[in-house]
Amino acid sequence: MPNRLIFGHDERVAKWTAKRIPGMEITDAFWPYTAIGVAADDGYPLAGFIYHRFRGFDVEISGSAQSPRWAQRGVIHALLHYPFEQMGCVRVTLLMAKRNKRARRLSKFLGFVEEGTHPMAYDGHYDACSYGLLRDVWRVGKFGLKQPVEMK
């Protein structure tokens, strides 16, 4: 069953997403941001992604999911198409808990490259890992522009 992308509800999606990420708060310092939600066909929320810390050429994505069902090919394509093709970024950055092995494995599967470990940078207690993905790498990768994607 295809999932739906939720646009235009930035504040609601960002709050839902941030609530599931330890230590993350949506404050004035977080602005500007855009948030995209992923819902099952029946409207049940599956995941949320916040695009923040935009620097003209790079944007950080923070995300959380309550079900792995969000990760469909068309959804992944759209979530990365937005920063690369609509925002014009040349790279995307992820920062996640080093102990979150599932998210780290997924990031590598999507083409992200681990760029470093940052002691206690996740929440003041746990280490964080940073990952980056370049637009040119994404475009020719398994979820990029060169791949056929069916969105329903």
Structural commentary:
Helix content is 26%, strand content 30%. It is built from four helices and seven strands; from the N terminus they run βαβββαβαββα.
Compile the SSE list and pairings.
Blueprint: E1 4-6, H1 10-19, E2 34-39, E3 45-52, E4 58-65, H2 73-86, E5 91-97, H3 101-109, E6 113-118, E7 128-134, H4 135-140
Parallel strand pairs: 4-5
Antiparallel strand pairs: 1-2, 2-3, 3-4, 5-7, 6-7
Give a brief description.
Helix content is 26%, strand content 30%. By secondary structure, the chain is α+β, with helices and mostly antiparallel strands.
Fill in the keyword field for this structure.
152 residues; alpha+beta; 26% helix; globular
How many helices does DSSP assign?
4
Shape: globular
| Proportion of residues in β-strands | 25-35%
What Rg, in angstroms, do the CA atoms define?
Answer: 15 Å
Straight-line distance between termini: 9 Å
Largest sheet: 7 strands, mixed
Structural class estimated from helices and strands: alpha+beta
- Compressed to H and E, one letter per element, the order equals EHEEEHEHEEH
Number of strands: 7
Order of neighbouring strands in the sheet with most strands:
1-2-3-4-5-7-6
User: Which percent range fits the helix content?
Assistant: 25-40%
Poorly predicted tracts of residues: none
Q: Tell me, rounded to a whole number, the average pLDDT.
A: 91
